[in-house]
Amino acid sequence: MPRKVKFVATPSELSRILAHLKKDPRPQLQKVKGLKITYAYRNDHWGTRHFVKDELPRIRYANPRMDIQVNKLPKTPQDGWKPELTLELRDGSTQSLDVDGKWSSTIFTELMDIGGGSGWEKWKQERIAAGLPVVDIPKPKPKPQPKHSSSATSNKSLPNPFALADDEPLVINPGKTGAAAVLP
């Protein structure tokens, strides 16, 4: 029995994915042989998680032979360990990047500064000369506005039938409890 296909992307979805993978600047890491990233899969390390979600597929697409290892570990709010990104360079040395508390765009920029090569330097010079940021900073998604029902807004203009008049005293029956104490 053939397996069911879980997800088949439509042509427009595929073109959107390819446009994201081929977006400038191309993350061709000529000086990097391998990359290892360790972070918490929830509760912390937001910038690192966004980097893995947004930038790591682009890095994999541009560098298909690069050894990329991703370790998502459980972390409770009491744990104090930090995420780490370790690069294995082509000359045999290793270098660690401090990625704790950084945005995904900052992590990407630091990674490209180490392994990007001449193409990255040219990109940076062009962007700086044009007065643009080196890498576009991700914009946070706006929070959706709460939807107000028409009945909730129309009730504001109607008078409250249970409101007491200014001269009417509130009589409480001490022999009763709850709502029965104030009802006639």
Describe this structure in a few short sentences.
The protein is an alpha+beta fold and 184 residues long. It has helices at residues 11-21, 46-54, 56-62, 104-115, 118-129, 150-154, and strands at residues 32-40, 67-73, 84-89, 94-98. The chain has a domain at 14-129: Glutaredoxin, CATH 3.40.30.
How does this structure look, described?
With 184 residues, the protein is α+β, with helices and mostly antiparallel strands. It has helices spanning 11-21, 46-54, 56-62, 104-115, 118-129, 150-154, and strands at residues 32-40, 67-73, 84-89, 94-98. Strands 2-1-3-4 form a 4-stranded mixed sheet, covered by helices on one side. It starts with 10 loop residues before the first helix and ends in a 30-residue tail after the last helix. The model has no long low-confidence stretch (mean pLDDT 83). Residues 148-158 have a biased composition (Polar residues). Residues 132-184 are annotated as: Disordered. Keywords: Mitochondrion, Ribonucleoprotein, Ribosomal protein. It is found in: Mitochondrion.
